[in-house]
Amino acid sequence: MNSYSFRPIHFIILFLSLIFLAAPHVLGSPDPNKPCYGKKIKGMQCIPEGFFIRGSNTHDADEAPEQKIYLSDFFIDIYEVTNEDFSKCIEEGSCKDCLYNGTCDYIGPAYGDLYLKPKQPVLGVSWYTAKEYCEWVGKRLPTEAEWEKAARGPKGNLFPWGNKPANCKLAVIEEDERKGCVYKKINPPNLMPTAPVGSRPAGVYGLFDMAGNSWEWVQDWYSENYKVCGEACNGKDPKGPCEGEDNCPGFDKKTLKGGSWWWPSSYARGSKRRAHVPQNYPEYHHFGFRCAKDAG
């Protein structure tokens, strides 16, 4: 007969070992067995599953309440969609924009040729056209929660690089009355171009221009704050009212994130939210986008 027998200390060791093995999932750390790991998609970055801090209690009222949200892993574009990318969809006839005036052809931004270089972010698109493009390439628009985690990281940084305010070395914004960080005067005044995507340092997850350059459409309908939004904005993998579908009774505006070359540092915060009608009228604003994709 084996003289070895379990003692109380052995049960304690076994119990602690089980907790240790389970901790990565419980605490929201990356799980290497998830489909995202070991899988790569060209031009996209994997954002690992886990908790992140969404919103803010100390900035704009619509960013409250700040709370921890759990997301499954997902992929998101490393760069904003460019004019070059978008033109291919136009040429194939897969991207058409039904404008407020009844026509259905993409006309580009209202600001002229300064913004139409191949590597600049595409501007002047509606939410519907952004969604159309993402579906054309086999992707989708990111949810607001996905976008915010990708911009801020798991610890709730104010900006993609940390908590230091945005400046022209870190983001394409308005600084010292210089729209887009451009020094020289252009006629008309203050009409300065966006920068080619990737012109500033990458953020916490290796993504570019998550602060500044162009506002980016996300999937969610806009609600006045997360408390009012309720369950649709909470829990695991929240998608907002009506899960971001094309129509949502009681909601008439979609959400944009990231700020742009036209706005100062405070608009480039990761938790900052902007609301606008999905048709992007009465004039075509400087709205662009990037796409996301499920990891599974």
UniProtKB/TrEMBL annotation:
PANTHER family: FORMYLGLYCINE-GENERATING ENZYME, SULFATASE MODIFYING FACTOR 1, 2. Residues 43-293 form the Sulfatase-modifying factor enzyme-like domain. The lineage of its organism: Bacteria, Pseudomonadati, Spirochaetota, Spirochaetia, Leptospirales. Pfam families: FGE-sulfatase. InterPro entries: CTDL_fold (IPR016187), Sulfatase_Mod_Factor_Kinase (IPR051043), SUMF_dom (IPR005532), SUMF_sf (IPR042095). Signal peptide: none annotated. This is Sulfatase. One of its GO terms (molecular function) is formylglycine-generating oxidase activity.
